[in-house]
Design brief:
homodimer, 118 residues, mainly alpha, Arc Repressor Mutant, subunit A, two-stranded antiparallel sheet, 2 strands, 43% helix, globular, DNA-binding
Chain lengths: 118, 118
DNA sequence: TCCTTAGTTCAAAAGTTATTGAACAATTGG
DNA sequence: CCAATTGTTCAATAACTTTTGAACTAAGGA
């Protein structure tokens, strides 16, 4: 079972920019980029917002074509659509990620989750 | 007399993205980029929106640090802050403009204004 | 089967942004 | 000075977006 995603051609520039123009979603994208290749589930982002609100933001990212969401069991595995975005808008995602990496004003993900050894 | 502009350091990534995430404003930026170096006044954009509404959108662009607005007589001369944006977010504006140039869904500026020779 | 985990959906409330028209201000040309 | 041109401000409204909590679904383990 797959959730609805736009095709690469359907990805719209103003929509991508508007969706990235939100600190919570930019923080999600920055974190996804920092864990490139590792599919993450929604709960990784609970630092940023409530479960319900995350569901909303992650749907926005998916509907804009910025992320891909795959249902696996009760989880959703989320990845960046780097290739599709790069084909459609060359250089855009990379420059956004680079800028986001250096932005201290964005909320952080994962700073609370230190694996505590037993 | 100069209108208030953010300094380069004050320019915020999410705000820039949110402000660019609007078709009218993206069309303004695309047109400014196509006339690089030539300062344009507000009336050039009347194809896109009413005078009042343009005033609003142009203020958003200025306050986000995307454009510079200079008052000259009763006119406002508007230019892109390309250098400041490039320093702050390298590659971002260029990729947005390149993507906007190829976007047929964006409203067009100036298609009605053909200089009629006498 | 029952419970837990993971996430969605829905409707309401809160907040924000866009659009409008009327009134205003400032400059410039006649 | 007067009128036209250029653009702003203000208040109202319309339209969207974000956030919330409660109720829900679906899968997986005990």
């Amino acid at each position: 079972m797959t959730l609805p995603h736009p095709t690469a051609e359907q990805i719209s520039l103003p929509i991508v920019l508007a969706v990235l123009g939100d600190p919570t979603r930019l923080a999600i994208v920055r974190y996804l980029a920092s864990k490139e290749g590792v599919p993450l589930n929604c709960s990784k982002f609970l630092d940023l917002a409530s479960k319900t609100n995350l569901s909303y933001h992650l749907a926005k990212l998916r509907e804009a074509g910025i992320t891909r969401t795959e249902a696996v069991g009760t989880s959703r595995l989320i990845t960046l659509r780097r290739d599709d975005l790069n084909n459609r808008f060359p250089g855009l995602l990379d420059s956004v990620i680079a800028a986001a990496e250096g932005d201290p004003a964005l909320p952080a993900v994962g700073t609370a989750e230190v694996e505590v050894p037993v």
